[in-house]
Structures are given as C-alpha cells and as structure tokens.
C-alpha cells in the first residue's frame, strides 16, 4: 500500500509495472479525480487506465457510477469503449479503449497547426454531431475542451474524458452547458489561423477576429453573450449558414 501511495504521488514511477492483465507503458495525464496511464493488455490492445485518487468516492460516490454507466451506454466509435474495472491492492481504476490520434491541444500548440476553412468546417460539424448524439442519449458531457478532443490521421474526431458527464436534469446538468464549451473550442480553432498585425494591440475575440455578422452572432449565442441556443439542431443550421 505504501508503494502504491508513493507511486500515485509520482505517477511516472509506475511505467513498466503490471496491474492485472495490463502493463503500464506511459503517463497520459492528471486530472481532478486521478491520473491516466497508457497501457497494453496481454492480448496486445492499447488502453487507457484511469486511476482514481484514494478516498475520492467517499466525497462523491456518483463519479464512479455516472462515468461507468454513461460510457457503457454509448455504443459509438467516436467515444472510448468502457472495458472494465481494476480493483487491486488499493489501485482502483477504469479501463477504457485508447483512441488513436492527437488532441486538439497538441495539434494547435505543439504542432502549431493552422486550419484551413475546410478543416474548420469539418471539425465544427463533427463536434456538433458528437454533441447531438450525446444529447439524444440524454447525456451532457460538460467538459468538451481541446485536451479532450482527439483527431486521428484521417481527420475524424473522438471525444474522451467523461468524468464530469451526467444525465441531463434541466437543473444542474443542462444541454446548454455543452454549447458554451463548443463555442470555446470553435474560438481556439479560429485563432489557429489568425495572425495579428505587427504593433496591433490585442482585444476581445469579437473585435479581433475577422468574422461576418452571422459568424459573430453564432459564437456570441454559444458563449451566452446573446440569447442562448435552445437546441443542437438550431446550432447546426446556423453553423452551416455562417461557415458553410
């Protein structure tokens, strides 16, 4: 137990160790609920092992229940498949399929990718369709950010990290929460191809980016600056009209 506790504080020390039928191959990141590791199964499949912080379920037992149930309900290759649970000597974790590709965060900041208009439109439409599928299942993701969106070599998107996802209740978990995240991601994508003129002073996105009136209204409504959208269908129609 002491070894596992020390390893949790320094997750990279766990690389190369074996847990159940999995061998840890790398450190994938750390969040509010725990650490994620890359691993390979005995059958050669690449997976993500999401280890939870000790005692996290004593504070919020619904974390475990919601993420597991939601991932198990989704049957779509745009989301990671839930593969099972590890509960071994104080090491409690979920095992999920590892989606191939890199995150939007890596694409924009590590690779300095500048998106074309066609790429921006494709990514935007894919995100809208991903959100549509979740909402049709009654699910609000609540964490659609650039580190959680993966693009593969063919340009196809996947959405990961369902730790904050919940079933919609129209009180604390509302569909419009995903709309503001979508607006934020779209702004990141738009800024990838924006070049500030030398000596030009910065400003808010709505005065800095070269946007049409339709584009401006769409983004302001997504961000809640103007009247909030009521449905993903309305967002899709406006996105096609603004950027198509």
Description:
This protein has 244 residues and is α+β, with helices and mostly antiparallel strands. It folds into two domains: 90 residues, Phosphorylase Kinase, domain 1; 142 residues, Transferase(Phosphotransferase), domain 1. Helices cover 39% and strands 21% of the residues. It has nine helices and eleven strands. The strands form three sheets. It has a six-stranded antiparallel sheet, with helices on one face. The chain has a three-stranded antiparallel sheet with strand order 7-9-10. A two-stranded antiparallel sheet has the order 8-11. The longest helix is centred in the middle third of the chain and has 20 residues. The N terminus is likely disordered.
Short characterization:
The protein is an alpha+beta fold and 244 residues long. Helices cover 39% and strands 21% of the residues.
Number of strands: 11
What order do the strands of the largest sheet run in, or round the barrel if closed? 1-2-3-4-6-5
User: What's the name of the CATH homologous superfamily of the largest domain?
Assistant: Transferase(Phosphotransferase) domain 1
Q: Characterize the overall form.
A: globular
Mean pLDDT: 90
CATH topology of the largest domain: Transferase(Phosphotransferase), domain 1
Tell me the major beta sheet. 6 strands, antiparallel
What are the low-pLDDT stretches, counting only 5+ consecutive residues below 50?
1-9
Count of discrete structural domains: 2
CATH architectural category of the largest domain: Orthogonal Bundle
Q: Tell me what portion of residues adopts beta-strand conformation.
A: 15-25%
Helix content: 25-40%
CATH class of the largest domain: Mainly Alpha
Structural classification: alpha+beta
Total of DSSP H or I helical runs spanning 4+ residues? 9
Order of helices and strands: HEEEEHHEEEHHEEEEHHHH
Rg value: 20 Å
Q: Report the span from N to C terminus.
A: 56 Å
């Amino acid at each position: 137990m002491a070894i596992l506790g020390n390893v949790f504080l320094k997750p990279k020390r766990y690389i190369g160790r074996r847990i159940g039928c999995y061998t840890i191959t790398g450190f994938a990141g750390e969040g509010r609920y725990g650490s994620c590791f890359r691993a390979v199964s005995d059958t050669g499949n690449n997976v993500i092992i999401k280890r939870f912080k000790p005692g996290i379920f004593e504070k919020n037992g619904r974390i475990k229940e919601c993420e597991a149930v939601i991932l198990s309900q989704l049957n779509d290759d745009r989301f990671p498949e839930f593969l099972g649970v590890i509960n071994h000597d104080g090491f409690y974790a979920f095992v999920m399929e590892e989606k191939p590709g890199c995150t939007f965060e890596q694409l924009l900041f590590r690779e300095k990718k500048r998106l074309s208009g066609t790429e921006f439109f494709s990514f935007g439409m894919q995100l809208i369709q991903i959100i549509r599928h979740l909402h049709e299942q009654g699910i609000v993701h609540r964490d659609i950010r650039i580190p959680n969106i993966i693009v593969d070599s063919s340009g196809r998107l996947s959405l990961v990290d369902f730790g904050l996802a919940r079933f919609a209740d129209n009180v604390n978990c509302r569909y419009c929460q995903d709309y503001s995240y979508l607006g934020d991601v779209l702004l990141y994508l738009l800024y990838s191809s924006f070049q500030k003129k030398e000596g030009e002073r910065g400003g808010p996105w709505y005065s800095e980016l070269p946007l049409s009136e339709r584009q401006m209204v769409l983004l302001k409504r997504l961000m809640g600056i103007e009247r909030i959208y009521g449905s993903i269908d309305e967002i899709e129609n406006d996105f096609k009209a603004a950027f198509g």
